Amino acid sequence: MKIIDAHHHFWDLDANYLPWLKDKPVKFRYGDYQALKRNYLPKDYRADVAPFELGGSVFIETEWDPMDPLGEVAWVAGVRAASGLPSVMVAQAWLDREDAEEVLAAHGATDFVRGIRHKPAAAPSPDKFDPGAPGSMADPAWRRGYAMLASNGLTFDLQTPWWHLVEARDLAEAFPDTRIHLNHTGLPADRSPEGLAGWRKAMKLFAAAPNVAVKISGIGVPGHRWSVEDNRAVVLDTIDIFGPDRCMFASNFPVDSLVGSFQTIFSGFLEITSEFSEADRRKMFHDNAANYYRMTADEPV
């Protein structure tokens, strides 16, 4: 089956500044990420994806130097011209900064940029949730920037833990002309019965908004190698909640190489969805990403 990888990264640590990979380690959901502190470029990605027929890819911003969000776009333009990858890009922007209008206008004028990602402030656990905290999706300063996305033709990639999806649902309703792509399946890290029940409830609330979709990715369990057994229920519940028309599969490479190979992860997705119709699988593995990220037949691959 031809796939579009709806979420991946490249980086060149010899040439560029990514604070989380160059400076003091940060708290990371998979634990030790020392193995990611190496260059990961199209030739490395093509080797990882080789067992599959790649129909396109979506580069997601890499937490590049926050003082230079346009620098990453310029770098990706060069990578894209030299290698044919990525097909399109989701760029960095800081919605609550004074330069948001200028940065978003530049992104909107770049032919291969389709949207932006700015991870909103998030509480570390459901019991610490503070509605309206500075930098959150309910912060008026953050929303002023978000309000500029639609006029610049940009979608929004949202990475936030599931207990913030109540804010995301309100955001989707307040800005119906901006589509939200939820990253990494809403981050169902707590696989206890209680944790999964909270995640399912939040995902159902969010999915009720018509202008949202989800990327099934980033569901590795810390301390475990990626397995169908660990992830089958999360994948099937997500498809049940959003429907095959609003789900996309993605690798989150090279980040998820910490928990499994590209082949292990995508073969697992294919196994878990083996009982779906060919048409529904084609949507989830290819067509939905092509539609939501506005890919055309002449995008590079």
UniProtKB/TrEMBL annotation:
It comes from the Bacteria. InterPro entries: Amidohydro-rel (IPR006680), Metal_Hydrolase (IPR032466), Metallo-dep_Lactonases (IPR052350). GO terms for molecular function: hydrolase activity. SUPFAM superfamilies: Metallo-dependent hydrolases. Residues 4-294 form the Amidohydrolase-related domain. Keywords: Hydrolase. The keyword Hydrolase applies. Belongs to the metallo-dependent hydrolases superfamily. This is Amidohydrolase family protein. It comes from Halovulum marinum.
